[in-house]
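User: Show me an example of a complex going from sequences to structure tokens.

Assistant: Sure. Here are the input components:
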Amino acid sequence: MSGVVGQVSVVDGKGGRVDVDADVLNPVRIGARLTLDDTRESARRLWKTGKFDDITIDTEPSSDGRIAVVFRVALRRLIGEVFTNNTETDALHLSTGVVYDPVAIVSAGMAFAHSFAQQGYPDFALSLTSDFSDDTHRTVDVCIRFDRGSKVTLEAIDVRGSAYVGPLSALLAREDTANVRGNVIDEAVLERDPLVMSAWLYDHGLLEHKIQQSLERQSDVVTVVFQVTDGPVYRYGSFDVRGDLLAPKPDYMKLVTEKRGDVFNRTATLKIIADIKALNGTLGHSDTDVEPNVEMDAAKHTVALVFTVRAPHVHP
Amino acid sequence: MFIAPLLLSFGLGALDLQSSPYVDRVAALVGDHVILLSEVRARASLVARTQHATLAQITDAIMRQVADHLVEEQLEDMEAKRLAVTVAPDEVDHAVEQLAQGNNTSVTSFLKEVDKQGITVPELKDALHRQLVESKLLLMRSSQMQRIEEKDLRARYDQMKRQVKDPKDLKSYDELKGELVNDLLQERIQALREDWMAQLRAKTYVEVRIGSGS
């Protein structure tokens, strides 16, 4: 065998030819040397068609002394019977005669579960099992068990552990108006809550804080607990501005409004960055980037803050 | 047995069809993505080289482990795409430099040593790339990691004391503290990873079709 492709074909389990779009097999070119990358790519393209349950790649000598590449495929099975204990599972679109696609079924099941969880049914359970309908293995019966569970609502959001429980709780009450007593938990909004608290803690020098979230369930109500560990308060130890300075350095240092010994404040730091960019912008370099380098001294609880200015057109 | 020379040919750009028939097939499914047997073999080949073993010594159970590992890599890859987490080539180069520094050697000497171990530079960089992506993804979940408290370190030290025949053989708590912190940190990172991987597996269709699973 020369290693050069002579023929490419796709056949089913009985050896019958299976037609596929030409671009699916394109990577394996007749007359070209057979490579692993090319056969892999063709196999992937065959798989993406969604028509097959299995693919095997084989080679045989072809009549002209070159190689015949054979993609042996198992066609996807069809759904035989669907057994369910609830008509709501019709939303899964599983019915007799439809192609049995386990990936699509699992995805649909997860979307279904997610939808019920969003409606306040966290105990929702969906079990999907399948088996061949008969000895021919051409069809698969699917059995769906569905249990909605009870509706669960929010009792409270409880911030614990921090010396700043009051301000943090007030902050969440202002920022998260979706997750209030009696409502179903809005996960998307709830995900933001630790970030909102983190931003506040960073603005109060608490650079090592940790927030752990847990749920305390009592029957059909749930309390969301944010366990906050504050850690030490960090203060500014020193400041510097370096890099592509287009004006005298004191002009930049004037923009550093925070003072040594002040409690670290992330919002104030971001404002300094914006002000440095604005200064360079007035000097014709609006594409300036400012990188803050924060060096923490864990023993002294201080922060050395260096703003590195990068103006691309100054140093191409 | 024909499988050994066949396996050895994987990882090469062109196939040696003089000495072996070429077979590939679906080894695992991760959502819509398919992992092929040749990819599992290629990785198994790398494992064998680093262990100074032959591919004939790779058992079905190891092939299954390799396939499971590739499944996890694919899950991470999908998650990295979803969260737009990327690793630039210079980050990988920096990781190589750090590894060389950690081994008290130059990058050139380090890469030569790696090559002697049977790992090519692209293979090393590929592995580091994957590791950096995973680190970034884990870092995003680090707030969920349990904090290491003094009492945890004391508890671990007490456990060690119970395990040694003569407690006098054990170094003092202060001497061992750094080591204890490292051990606990590694364990918690591992637990975080396992929990995260279980969550990724739960929301994706995964099927491994090779190996014994044992």
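The lines above are the inputs; the final block is the predicted structure for all two components together. The beta strands of chain B are 24-30, 33-36, 206-208.
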